[in-house]
Every structure is written in structure tokens, then in C-alpha cells.
Amino acid sequence: xxxxxxxxxxxxxxxxxxxxxxxxxxxxxxxxxxxxxxxxxxxxxxxxxxxxxxxxxxxxxxxxxxxxxxxxxxxxxxxxxxxxxxxxxxxxxxxxxxxxxxxxxxxxxxxxxxxxxxxxxxxxxxxxxxxxxxxxxxxxxxxxxxxxxxxxxxxxxxxxxxxxxxxxxxxxxxxxxxxxxxxxxxxxxxxxxxxxxxxxxxxxxxxxxxxxxxxxxxxxxxxxxxxxxxxxxxxxxxxxxxxxxxxxxxxxxxxxxxxxxxxxxxxxxxxxxxxxxxxxxxxxxxxxxxxxxxxxxxxxxxxxxxxxxxxxxxxxxxxxxxxxxxxxxxxxxxxxxxxxxxxxxxxxxxxxxxxxxxxxxxxxxxxxxxxxxxxxxxxxxxxxxxxxxxxxxxxxxxxxxxxxxxxxxxxxxxxxxxxxxxxxxxxxxxxxxxxxxxxxxxxxxxxxxxxxxxxxxxxxxxxxxxxxxxxxxxxxxxxxxxxxxxx
Length: 487
Known about the structure:
One of its GO terms (molecular function) is DNA-binding transcription factor activity. This is Stage 0 sporulation protein A homolog. The chain has helices at about 10-20, 25, 35-45, 65-75, 90-95, 110-125, 135-150, 155-165, 185-195, 200-210, 245-255, 270-280, 290-300, 305-315, 320-340, 355-375, 380-395, 400-410, 415-425, 430-445, 450-455, 465-475, 480-485; strands at about 1-5, 30-35, 50-55, 80-85, 100-105, 175-185, 215-225, 230-235, 255-260. It has about 475 residues and is α/β, with parallel strands linked by helices. The protein is globular and about 75 Å long.
């Protein structure tokens, strides 16, 4: 069943549309009706929506075209159908430009509406992944485990309920567990030329070989990525099997190189959840830049996670001396850039041995992260977010990005995004847009400045895009807002 919103400024029309078709029979559930586009946008940010049926003109707020543009830019998977009483080429052209999937002219016939949503249902069905029963069960179990690890469950009872619904044994909640990661070299070539049964099936085969059914361990995958995979291993007696040796045996048979990494033992899944965001942050599923992640973990005082990130980045048995020296140079220069106010002891690294460079840097990472941890104080990362906010306020007129601001405060973009929302209650992009719109409103009160000049002064290059954003933010176009200020 697909979730559908109906948006029209006429309440009576909205009510009629709810009953004009047997929506359930067509495969749609009407999740809400709205008489203005802004309320529909607010609903979309908090709820799952698959399709929107919207009028093209709605006075006093964003139009259907504004709504379609915002959705096309931010929620491209949502299908938009425009209704209009206007046979205007400009409207139709705007709809096409924003990937509207249908344009219905009022008065809308039953047949046109029925055919449009029958076609839309078929189109949405094609997007759905074709899971077989085993893959679907695995997906449900991964989702359940992620919710527990991300602390999305509020109690032990709720965690047990989630496990039962996902067909996971409840007893795993009490077992000691390990976070395990397997990495593969030249994996795509192996899949294409040797395996030929798909990435997911390879991982299933690997799990079964590593953890035989009668060995007393339980294994559940978390991620299946391009060159690596991670999974949870539960052990009733707390011991960890020799996964590295078994993985090497399996991969030698197949002609594949494999590297296994394992965390220390956690008392149970809830203990692992305390460190999970940092374990996930050093996983390529979340970031492509291990150095960025390492610097973020050092800066935020996450000592153990920083050491793990460093070991992922710097593997002395698999790295050249030149690469080791490059990593050392980048790491030390980067730490100096954000730790000028701290008395940090930097290693001299007067050696031509990659293993010795690794040893010295490993000590440096641990001691430096610990020093930052000791100096965080009760406000935690608050000073970094305030520094990011200052940078935005001083540079909103430039084409700044999350990555640029993250670099300025020496945080990984993923960390900055998470901490920014926690501290301010706003997403990074929403805060940047608000600062720009407030400044634009201030400049519009000065009648001698042209609108296109204001657009450039607040960081936008496209005047039409600026018009639409300003109207979404204030309910008025820049011209309307300026006229209102004169009254």
C-alpha cells in the first residue's frame, strides 16, 4: 500500500477526492489532506509519503509548483501529480521541469484519475526490490538489530518484542557479542568472473562457513557493501572463534583475499550499542574518508574508536613506507591545525620502518584523543557547533557546504551533521537557509538594492531558485515582501 497526500486550498474538494475512487483497491492509502502546501511539507519531513496529488495554485503560501520543486530537490522518490484549472504552457513546462509524473486539467474525470493512479501504481511497483523470502527475513532482522544498536528502542521489553517480530531468538540479548568486519580485495572482479551468484549470496555462504550451525555461535549480518561486510557474532560462552583462519581457508579455496577485523567482547548487545555509532562511523558504509573520521574521533575525545579508526587506516603489514610517511604527515599537520591551544607531544618519527611509524602514531592517537576527552568539559561538543554557527554566519554569502564547515571545525561531516542537529534542533542546511533568508529579508527592506543583487549577496546564483526558497520560507515572493514592508 502506497501513502498518498491530497493538497488543495479548497477543503470541500479535498473531501470529495477522498471518496471519488476506491483508493485502497488501487493500492493507495490516503495519509492526509491539506489545504496549504506548507503543512504538506511539514508532514513529509516527519512521515513516509510515496505520492502527492496537489493543486497548482494555492493563495497565501507555496504553490503546487513550489511544492513539486522542493520535493524534486529533496525527496526525488516521491511522485507528484499536478491538478490545474489552467491550460497554460508555462505551468505545464514548470511541471515537466520538476519531474511531475502527471498533469491533470480540472474538471478531472473519473476515468482520467483512475488511469493516472493505475499507471502510477505500476510505476511504483517497479521500484520495489524483489526480495525472496530469505532475503526479506534477513532485511527485517538487520533492521531490528540496527534499531537496538541505535537506541531506537526504549526498554528491554520493547527490544524483546522487536526480536520476536523479526524472528530473532530473544536470548541473544543476554549473550556476549562481537562486532566483526570482513574486507575483500578485488571483490568486483571476483564476483563477475568466479562467483557469479551475487554479492548477497556470497556473504550468506561466508557466514555459514565461518560459523557452522552446530558450533554454539549465532551470526547476523549488518551491512553488505561493495568491498566489505560487517556482522554481529553472539557467543553463549563469551569465547571468540578463530575467524581469521577460517576466513583465509574459505577465501583461498575461492581465490580471494580477505581480512577480518573484530572488536573486543561486549557484555551484551546493549553494551555494544553504547559504542555503536563510533564503530559505524569507521565503516565505509558511512564514510569514504578514514582520515576525516580519525581526526573527528580524536577531536571529540573518542579514544577507543579513534584507535580503531587508526588501525583501519594504517595497516603496517600492508602499507609502503612512503604511504606510512604520507599518513603521518597529514595526521600530525591536521592535529596541529585544531590543537594549537593544547600542549601535545608530537612524535619525531626518525625511522624508515613502517611498523615503528605505526607504533609511535598509535601511541600519539591514544594520548591525544584522551587529552581532548579530558578537556571536553560538561558542554561536550558545544564549542565546536558554536564555531560552526559562527562560520556560517560569517560566510553565508559564499557557496559553503557541510563538508567545508566540517573541515573548518575538524569534524567528519557525518559527525558535524549529527551533533549540529542535537545542539541546535535544526539540520545544517535548514540553519544555513534560515540565516540566508533572514539576511535577504533585511536587505529587502532597503528599496535601492535590486532583488538579483540580494540573491547574490546571500549566497544564491539562480534568482528563480532564490524566489521560490524565499516564498517557501516567508509565504511571500521577494517582490511581495518588499511591497508589504512599504505599507
